[in-house]
């Protein structure tokens, strides 16, 4: 509102800086009616450029955008000065500039316009079928937002703790199941081991093979004899004649048990000898294991291992039960062909025994009468196989070295020889 004694400037008709440099302002005051009249002469004012807005077709009034109603922000080549955005012309408390505006922002579309008579005339058709009506909700301040976040965090923690508890319970159940299975497997394994140990103890007493097995049998026999002897001594109802008869029966039983143990010992020695020979022949004929530079192990067959394998196969054929004369003659012929290339007393004896067995088989002698002859041939052929002269691989399996000077001084120590021999 202007004051009653309004003066436009120190001199009447000065140009207002907000209305333009060429606009003339004059004021008329009527104190009686309390009215003020402000006259603005814009004839000399330069018309502003059209920079966006709309025009009323009824009276031709042009409405410019607020940003277009301000003056030129700064003169060319002058210091940058932003225009005043709050003025009576703009009636805006805040104005934001945009670097670039779209075409739609520069124009205004109206579905209906009104003529001078006040009638509505449709100009354009605006589709409002996809329009949405938004109803604002209650105002949410920062405290309400923080409370909502706190409640949401509580819900998240609740479900997270529930999931953690479920996983822990599942882990505990699985651990309990695994422990139960472990103890069941442990008990089953212990039961199997107990049964296997019982079977092994029974087997070593029925068919003893090692020295430890026979020591256990002799120890049990001694314990049994001691217990039976104590029973006879403690029997007060028996007289001297009855005790003597009981001691004789105990001695007879002990002798029979000792004879049975000796029979088992001879049988075990025979079986152990056969197993030892079979293992030795298998090791002789097995290929060599060589380690390459890259660490890989290769199996190498040498002429010596091949010959040892053939000799071992021949020995196994000689130990088999004779089914037919043709099969036995074939084996004897192959053995004869293998050993006849050498000329030693052992070879001559083997050839003589082979010819004798062939002659007896052609005569039709029973097999029981040839068991001793066949056993002699088998033993002599085993000596042939274990001789390094005929089987080079046998050197590694000799119990005594061939060189009897091995590990000894080659020259005898004399009494006057110095301590350090050069």
Automatic annotation (TrEMBL):
Region (Disordered): 1-21
UniProt xrefs under InterPro entries: IQUB, IQUB_helical
Comp. bias (Polar residues): 1-14
Record's protein name: IQ motif and ubiquitin-like domain-containing protein
Domain IQ motif and ubiquitin-like residues, every copy: 272-406
Cross-referenced Pfam families: IQUB
PANTHER family documented for this protein: IQ AND UBIQUITIN-LIKE DOMAIN-CONTAINING PROTEIN
């Amino acid at each position: 509102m202007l004051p009653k004694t309004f003066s436009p400037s120190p001199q009447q008709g000065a140009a207002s800086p907000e209305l333009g440099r060429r606009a003339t302002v004059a004021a008329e005051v009527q104190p009686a009616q309390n009215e003020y009249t402000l006259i603005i002469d814009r004839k000399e004012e330069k018309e502003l450029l059209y920079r966006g807005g709309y025009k009323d077709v009824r009276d031709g009034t042009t409405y410019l955008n607020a940003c277009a109603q301000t003056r030129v922000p700064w003169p060319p080549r002058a210091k940058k000065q932003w225009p005043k955005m709050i003025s009576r012309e703009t009636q805006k408390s805040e104005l934001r500039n945009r670097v670039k505006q779209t075409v739609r922002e520069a124009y205004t579309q109206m579905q209906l316009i009104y003529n001078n008579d006040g009638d509505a005339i449709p100009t354009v058709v605006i589709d409002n079928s996809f329009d949405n009506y938004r109803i604002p909700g209650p105002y949410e301040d920062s405290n309400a937002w923080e409370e909502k976040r706190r409640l949401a965090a509580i819900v998240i923690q609740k479900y997270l703790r529930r999931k953690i508890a479920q996983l822990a319970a599942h882990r505990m159940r699985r651990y309990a199941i695994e422990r139960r299975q472990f103890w069941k497997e442990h008990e089953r394994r212990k039961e199997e081991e107990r049964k296997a140990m019982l079977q092994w103890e029974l087997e070593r007493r029925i068919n003893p093979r090692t020295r430890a097995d026979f020591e256990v049998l002799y120890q049990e026999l001694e314990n049994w004899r001691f217990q039976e002897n104590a029973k006879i001594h403690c029997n007060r109802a028996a007289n001297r004649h009855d005790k003597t008869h009981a001691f004789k029966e105990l001695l007879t039983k002990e002798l029979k048990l000792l004879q049975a143990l000796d029979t088992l010992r001879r049988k075990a020695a025979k079986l152990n000898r056969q197993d030892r020979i079979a293992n030795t022949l298998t090791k002789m004929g097995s290929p060599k294991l060589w380690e390459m530079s890259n660490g890989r192990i290769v199996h190498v067959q040498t002429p010596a291992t091949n010959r040892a394998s053939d000799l071992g196969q021949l020995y196994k054929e000689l130990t088999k039960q004779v089914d037919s004369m043709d099969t036995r003659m074939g084996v004897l012929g192959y053995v004869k062909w293998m050993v006849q290339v050498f000329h030693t007393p052992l070879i001559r004896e083997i050839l003589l025994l082979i010819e004798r067995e062939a002659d007896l088989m052609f005569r039709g002698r029973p097999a029981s009468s040839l068991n001793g002859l066949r056993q002699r041939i088998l033993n002599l052929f085993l000596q042939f196989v274990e001789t390094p002269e005929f089987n080079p691989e046998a050197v590694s399996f000799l119990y005594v070295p061939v060189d009897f000077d091995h590990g000894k001084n080659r020259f005898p120590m004399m009494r006057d020889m110095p301590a350090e021999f050069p």
